[in-house]
Design goal:
Immunoglobulin-like; binds 2-acetamido-2-deoxy-beta-D-glucopyranose; Cadherin-17; cell membrane; metal-binding; Cadherin_CS; mainly beta; about 800 residues; single chain
Length: about 800
């Protein structure tokens, strides 16, 4: 061993006199020469002491300092030795000198996680980038070198339901946080546990030779604590000391500001919130004024940004019985005829209560407290406890004893009591009938166009009973001749004069003449033995004159549906109108801008006049006109065209595809097809190349999705020119239609931005009149439209991604 080592010595010229020396030696390795000290007489040998650690020594005779074993930086980074030279007798000649050996680290230790497995908990809707746990690894190599520079990453993400990971890791600190996607989509209802496989690499992850270790991270997703409490119920008019704690939300730790925002701007809220999330009601509520409240709790951080979505709080104000009954009228006046018998209903006392309807809080009970005067008895009246209906108890009333009674009725809701006043007026018996001044008002002639509500006649009857009572007030009614209530009669309560008015539009064609019989009656019943006779009736005729009216369609809108490929002269609809005067109606069309239809002017039958096309207009709307001699009217006809696959597919790209010259292999370009026909759900096109050898040898087409395919060159030996690639697109419809398109593919020089440069005025090339600058802009435009995704790096913003993923999820 050593002799071999000594032979090398001559070549290396690493010898010299004894002095203080430093050496830097990489760790590892085996037996190895370090240095040879030359001896100066009288020294004949050398001796080394100190931190030899069994692996460093000196050959006494030759002065060769050597390693007999491997240095290990991790065990000892510096070895300090003392070397001296000795004479024959073993006495020190020179020295001792300090020889220091610095061990150089090599990357010989993989990083190690401090745990085999980590667990963490994250809340739904946590802020993106906010760490909820840390992982940590160590590396025994020299921390001042890249050998111990660690970088963390996520290797696997189980499950990984979205296109982007829900978690992210800080590559330096090992902090794990939700990504933007995670903040949005984490939901324990959908997935409550995730397993991440995280890796740590040394060499700052910069080289493929870095050591890598991995560990599992189990993450549990918990429901967000930030959620609205269930509907809060607060009793109104409470006597507690305000503010009163009514609910609580759990604020986010980083939320610095909680506030309440009313649902409707500017409405004042009798609620407040403190920064620990407790919600208070600040004053007594009044259900009778407002029975529900809705508002939001908003959480913001110190920059004023929303920390999470606002919570919607609902409050229901519960009723207590805090409102007394109220009499509907200050005095309820009731008229009773002298002859009304025992048990008769004479009227109803109406009272209300503002407390919640259909609860005991608003249940009212009635009781008569007093009757003045109490003659001839003190209990002439009875009130039904739960309805307020007043009845006579037994005998009839007598105007000569008392014409007028005052009742005090106690109305009670269980807590509150109110007294309502009732006056009972005893009135004369109704023994006179109304007598008309005339038994026949003859007739009136009116045009059928007379406005509704016009007074056409005034009538008068008189009644001899006590004025101002129900015995003398007159109600006029149409007794005969007006089954449809075409007329009404209103009575002037002072004079009992009646006004006959039209109540509905008149129609000469339906009813040209009315033979009316009008009756006059009293609201109070007549006494026994007296009856209405013919003096309470009168006659009246109304003649309606004709006004020429326009024809009337049976419908205002006619709708039809046909396939777009029906033959010319197909009947698609029959419309019908009649003329109220019975004149002949002729039909015509208006607004038939496409000249697709014609109408039979006599029968109203509508036929197609030329071929239809759904791709031009799916809902074709025309007006149908019905005319008679002087009048006309209109209806609408809407023809809905159903799709037939009658359009072959076509390319839907603004610019031709291109490839940068020279080709490097692996390029592909997106091509897109479209079809004017209805795409029922998602059309599926088939793309293929024309069957010629040249094309098939040069190009390849592969399906990307329903509407897109990739075109790729099969080799790289293309010239810089425009190639014609015949592509066949089939729409797979019923019947299937296909189109052969000559796709002009540019193989061209590209700028550094990978946009294609096409020379001006190249014959037969795509942009026949375009200029190079135009092409360049065009290409950039296409990038914006993402039509050529295959060639360009996607530069989408995160917002776009969120939108896309939204769609993906829904
Ligand atoms: C080297 O070390 C081995 C054992 O560790 C020992 O047997 C051997 O003698 C040593 N050689 C020299 C030259 O010191
Ligand atoms: C670590 O992350 C930073 C940004 O977060 C990035 O710039 C850097 O390249 C990453 N380092 C490695 C080794 O991935
Ligand atoms: C609250 O209740 C008391 C009696 O309980 C009542 O007098 C008062 O009017 C009530 N206030 C409101 C606002 O309803
Ligand atoms: C009923 O009596 C009251 C007082 O007793 C009186 O003010 C009122 O005018 C009377 N009404 C009638 C219709 O007699
Ligand atoms: C009443 O209405 C019906 C149906 O609308 C109609 O047939 C009848 O002619 C009308 N009668 C009169 C008198 O207007
Ligand atoms: C109808 O009755 C009243 C009395 O109630 C009487 O004066 C009148 O003559 C009667 N009319 C006819 C037509 O009988």
């Amino acid at each position: 061993h050593l002799s071999a080592m000594c032979q090398n010595l001559g070549d290396l010229h690493v010898t010299g006199p004894l002095k203080d020396m430093n050496f830097s030696i990489p760790e590892g390795g085996a037996v190895r020469f370090i240095y040879q000290f030359t001896s100066e007489p009288p020294a004949v040998s050398f001796r080394a002491t100190g931190e030899k650690d069994g692996i460093i020594d000196i050959v006494p005779r030759t002065g060769i300092l050597f390693l007999n074993g491997s240095l290990d930086w991790e065990t000892k980074a510096v070895h300090r030795l003392q070397v001296e030279s000795l004479d024959e007798k073993g006495n020190t000649v020179k020295g001792p000198y300090t020889v220091t050996i610095y061990v150089e680290d090599i990357n010989d230790n993989p990083p190690e996680f401090d745990q085999i497995m980590y667990t963490g908990v994250v809340r739904q809707n946590s802020r993106p980038g906010k760490p909820f746990m840390y992982i940590h690894a160590t590396d025994r190599d020299d921390p001042t070198t890249p050998h111990a520079q660690l970088t963390y990453s996520i290797l696997h993400h189980f499950p990984n339901p979205y296109k982007e990971m829900l978690f992210q890791i800080d590559n330096v600190t090992g902090a794990i946080s939700p990504s933007k996607m995670g903040s949005y989509y984490l939901d324990p209802q959908k997935q409550d546990t995730f397993t991440l496989v995280v890796t740590v690499k040394d060499m700052a992850g910069m080289t493929a030779n870095a050591f890598t270790s991995s560990a599992d991270v189990i993450i549990t997703v918990k429901e967000s604590l930030w959620k609205a409490p269930p509907t809060i119920r607060i009793q109104e008019n409470s006597t507690q000391v305000y503010p009163v704690n009514i609910s609580q939300v759990c604020p986010w730790p980083q939320a610095l500001h909680l506030s309440l925002v009313p649902q409707k701007k500017q409405s004042r809220l009798p609620f407040s919130i403190d920064q620990s999330g407790v919600i208070y009601v600040t004053e007594p509520l009044d259900r009778e004024k407002k029975d529900t409240y809705a508002f939001f709790v908003v959480t913001k951080d110190n920059t004023g940004e929303l920390v999470d979505k606002p919570l919607h709080i609902h409050i229901i104000v519960e009723d207590i019985n805090d409102n007394p009954p109220v009499c509907q009228q200050a005095v309820t006046v009731i008229e009773v005829q002298e002859n009304e018998g025992a048990g008769s209903n004479i009227g109803t006392l109406i009272a209300t209560d503002m407390d919640e309807e259909n609860t005991l809080n608003s249940r009212l009970r009635f009781k008569i407290e007093s009757q003045v005067p109490p003659v001839p008895a003190s209990n002439l009246f009875f009130i039904q406890q739960d309805t307020g209906i007043l009845q006579l108890t037994s005998r009839s009333l007598n105007k000569r004893i008392a014409s007028n009674y005052s009742l005090k009725v106690l109305v009670s809701d269980g807590v509150f009591q109110t007294i309502c006043d009732v006056q009972v007026h005893v009135i004369d018996i109704n023994d006179q009938i109304p007598i008309f001044e005339k038994s026949d008002y003859h007739n009136v002639t009116v045009a059928e166009s007379l406005p509704v509500g016009t007074v056409i006649l005034e009538i008068q009857a008189t009644d001899g009973d006590e004025p101002g009572t129900g015995s003398s007030y007159i109600i006029y009614q149409m007794k005969e001749g007006d089954p449809n209530n075409t007329f009404i009669i209103v009575t002037d309560s002072e004079t009992n004069r009646g006004f006959v008015k039209t109540n509905k539009a008149l129609d000469f064609e339906a009813t040209p003449v009315y033979n009316l019989v009008i009756s006059a009656t009293n609201p109070e019943p007549l006494v026994l033995g007296v009856q209405y006779n013919s003096s309470s009736l009168t006659l009246f005729k109304v003649f309606v004159t004709n006004v020429d009216e326009p024809p009337v369609f049976h419908k205002t809108v006619y709708k039809g549906e046909v396939f777009e490929d029906i033959p010319v002269n197909t009947l698609v609809m029959t419309v019908e109108a009649y003329d109220p005067e019975g004149d002949t109606v002729r039909y015509s069309l208006k607004g038939d801008v496409r000249k697709w239809l014609r109408i039979d002017s006599a029968t109203g039958q509508i036929y197609t006049a030329s071929t239809l096309d759904r791709e031009q207009e799916e809902m074709y709307t025309v007006e149908v006109v019905a005319s008679e001699l002087t009048q006309k009217s209109k209806a609408t006809f809407i023809l809905h065209l159903s799709d037939v696959n009658d359009n072959p597919p076509l390319l839907a790209m603004d610019y031709p595809p291109f490839f940068c010259h020279p080709l490097s292999g692996g390029e592909r370009a997106f091509i897109q097809a479209d079809d004017a026909d209805e795409q029922l759900w998602y059309s599926t096109f088939t793309f293929s190349l024309a069957d010629d050898v040249n094309t098939r040898n040069n190009w390849e087409i592969t399906k990307a999705n329903a509407t897109h395919a990739y075109l790729s060159p099969k080799h790289v030996n293309f010239e810089e020119k425009v190639y014609n690639v015949p592509v066949i697109i089939n729409d797979n419809g019923k019947p299937p239609l296909e189109r052969k398109v000559n796709l002009e593919v540019n193989i061209c020089k590209c700028s550094s931005e990978k946009s294609c440069f096409i020379e001006v005025q190249r014959e037969h090339s795509w942009p026949s009149t375009g200029q190079a600058i135009g092409i360049l802009l065009g290409v950039l435009l296409i990038i914006g439209k993402s039509l050529f995704l295959g060639l360009y790096e996607k530069k989408q913003k995160r917002e776009d991604l969120m939108v896309v993923y939204h769609d993906y999820i829904s």
